[in-house]
Write a structure and sequence with these properties.
This protein is an alpha+beta fold and about 650 residues long. The chain has eleven helices and 35 strands.
């Protein structure tokens, strides 16, 4: 398991209603209303989630609520007693893993500032220790070093806030050794299977990507490959002989493929798997058997290509036993004969299972959210439409329970663009979709140009298109729903978070008569101030951001044109804005500016700020407040479309 700390640039930006009556065609079936489900059931913390297993297979661990916060619990397999290892009450634990059989490492920030600290917890229940207790420093796990039980590799921007240095962290005494001083341009470090630092990825000139290599840790670094950032090889791990690299590459091709890269020859020597329609960016392997197992990619669902017959048969067995659900292996012991299996679907958060390969034993551990009946959930349907300039835009349409593409007519709709923007929506359980559908709204998600997974050409089509063609793709999807008769043209809202919040604001600016209301969740409003207030560790990539979104000096006219705060006079629809006070990505000032400008022009705006949150609301009670306010807001402004 590798935790390579590549800093992907700005994935910035992730009273109740009843259903609309629908007469439809006289031959349509009668619409059956789903049971109205309490808001809290969609957004409360899972009962138990994030299961993992100790390397020896003796224990499994999971996150479960304690004082409304997700904390680590450990249970010996075959026994009923549970030990709660952590007692965090201010913030959920962000992530954790087993570095050895006796200890767990976890990450937690303060109030959403994303300055994560590394903590060590002993399985015996002793008080956890903070190993990186430095103010204003972000710590991340780079490599868990599975063959070295008492060491891990972390990165920190302790020496310089703008750059991350790698450290070897010794778990027996908490000491750490810096392994290299980042000269300022290194964005990722890669270790071989022996735990030696031998590869680095650098951003040169702000827009070019270089691969650095050294044969041993005693050697000097050499640059062996430099490409424009739009075309790159992204290493994931060393081959099992520690000579070459396995990774994804779009060099000389539109769609990323899984390749083997010769470090001495500095070139690809083997294409292991590629797909003609989608980027293939992920590959997994067996640490024990030293073989590649599968490559995965996302069409409308996650798909796998198997390199290894044993892995293929394992998944076939699990999918047969767990028919009707998607299956993912989320953990395994060192001997790779005991696995943690997770199921899910668009209508269910699924369940966790223990799978033992000896005897093919599959045992259910728990359902993730047993209070949600998937029979009352809605389908997330794959759709596609054409943009005005001929691009194929893929997406998903979630209709209220009982509706189909055939009988859905004249519904109130929430248009829901994703964050990133260089990210994508995918198929699976989404509590927002299910909540809105349960309240009678259809929800349209679209992977507008720039969304990842569809190749380099589709990605580059978004460059300097914020608020322009990217926004047109969203508008075209909205009009597509209207033309199909699914949407009530007078009752359409737009809602998104991060870049999706920006798209909400620009939607209200560019299409003032199209949307009846907007909900902006931690969204950008001013491209100039946004770029001035990004976290310090994004600054080495600013030139890249300028090429992708716009240069504040060279493209100042365009950036003013696509900054919603300067065009509030065009907005007619009421707006609800929600913001975390400690957001390190989209500064609170982005929302403050927008609210002030709206109020100055007498346009209705509601504003929610949570002082203990960052880029999105993590604490359960804050999620409840936000979605309760959003429900009230949408009910108020789309009420004529519901009974």
């Amino acid at each position: 398991m590798k935790f390579i700390n590549y800093l992907v640039i700005i994935t910035v930006l992730s009273g109740s209603l009843f259903f609309v009556s629908c007469n439809g065609d006289k031959n349509d079936e009668k619409i059956m209303k789903a049971e109205l489900i309490p808001l809290e059931d969609f957004f409360k913390n899972p009962e138990k989630t994030s299961y993992q297993i100790s390397p020896d297979g003796k224990y499994y661990s999971y996150l479960a609520p304690y004082e409304k916060r997700m904390n680590i619990h450990v249970q010996e397999r075959g026994k009923d007693s549970v030990i709660r290892l952590t007692s965090e009450t201010d913030r959920n634990i962000a992530g954790y893993f087993w570095p050895n059989n006796e200890q767990l490492l976890y990450l937690k920030d303060t109030g959403g500032d994303e300055n994560y600290k590394v903590y060590l917890a002993d399985v015996n229940g002793d008080e956890p220790k903070c190993l990186t207790d430095f103010d204003g420093v972000r710590s991340m796990i780079i490599d868990d070093l599975p063959d070295i039980p008492n060491e891990v590799i972390i990165s920190m921007n302790k020496r310089n806030p703008q750059v991350f240095d790698p450290y070897r962290l010794y778990l027996d005494n908490g000491k750490m050794d810096i392994l290299a001083e980042n000269p300022g341009n290194i964005q990722g470090w890669l270790f071989d299977h022996a735990g030696k630092l031998r590869v680095a990825v650098a951003i040169t000139d702000g827009v070019n990507t270089s691969l650095l290599y050294r044969e041993t840790e005693a050697d000097e670094w050499s640059t062996i490959l430099t490409t424009d950032f739009k075309e790159s090889f992204n290493p994931q791990f060393f081959t099992f002989d520690n000579k070459n690299l396995i990774g994804s590459s779009n060099i000389g091709r539109d769609k990323s493929a899984i390749v083997e890269f010769d470090l001495n020859e500095a070139k690809e020597i083997n294409v292991l798997y590629e797909n003609p329609e989608y980027d293939v960016n992920y590959v997994s392997y067996s640490q024990k058997r030293k073989v590649l197992t599968a490559a995965s990619y996302t069409s409308w669902k996650r798909e796998r290509f198997f390199f290894d017959e044993e892995s293929k048969k394992k998944y076939e067995f699990l999918e047969n036993k767990l028919e009707g659900y998607e299956v993912a292996i989320t953990g395994k012991n060192k001997d790779e004969n005991i696995y943690i299996v997770r199921t899910y679907s668009d209508k269910s958060l699924g369940a966790y299972y223990i799978y033992e390969t000896e005897g093919n034993k599959l045992e259910k551990i728990t359902d993730v959210s047993p209070w949600l009946d998937e029979n009352n959930m809605a389908n997330q349907l794959p759709i596609e439409y054409k943009s005005r300039d001929g691009l194929t835009i893929n997406g998903y349409l979630t209709l209220p329970k009982g509706y189909t593409m055939k009988n859905a007519k004249d519904l109130p709709v929430v248009i829901h663009p994703h964050g990133g923007p260089w990210h994508r929506d995918s198929w699976g359980f989404n509590p927002e979709l299910q909540f809105l559908a349960n309240r009678g709204f259809a929800v349209l998600q679209m992977n507008f140009r720039g969304s990842t997974g569809y190749g380099r050409k589709f990605w580059e089509a978004s460059f300097k298109k914020w608020g322009r063609e990217m926004q047109d793709d969203i508008t075209d999807g909205t009009n597509w729903l209207i033309e199909k008769g699914i949407a009530n043209a007078d009752k359409i809202a737009i809602y998104g978070g991060s870049y999706g919040g920006y798209a909400t604001l620009m939607g209200l600016v560019k299409e003032p008569d199209l949307y009846a209301a907007g909900v902006d969740y931690v969204g950008v409003s001013n491209m100039f101030t946004f770029m001035k207030t990004i976290p310090p560790y994004w600054k080495p990539m600013l030139e890249m951001m300028y090429e992708m979104a716009g240069d504040p000096v060279k493209d100042s006219i365009m950036l003013r044109e696509v900054s919603p705060v300067f065009h509030v006079d065009k907005i007619k629809a009421p707006l609800f804005i929600a913001q975390g006070a400690n957001d390190p990505r989209v500064n609170k000032d982005e929302s403050d500016q927008m609210v002030e400008a709206m109020k100055e022009r007498g346009i209705e705006v509601e504003y929610m700020v949570k002082d203990n949150e960052g880029h999105g609301f993590s604490n359960e009670e804050n999620r409840f407040d936000f979605y309760r306010a959003m429900e009230s807001f949408l009910t108020k402004h789309l009420r004529d479309s519901v009974e």
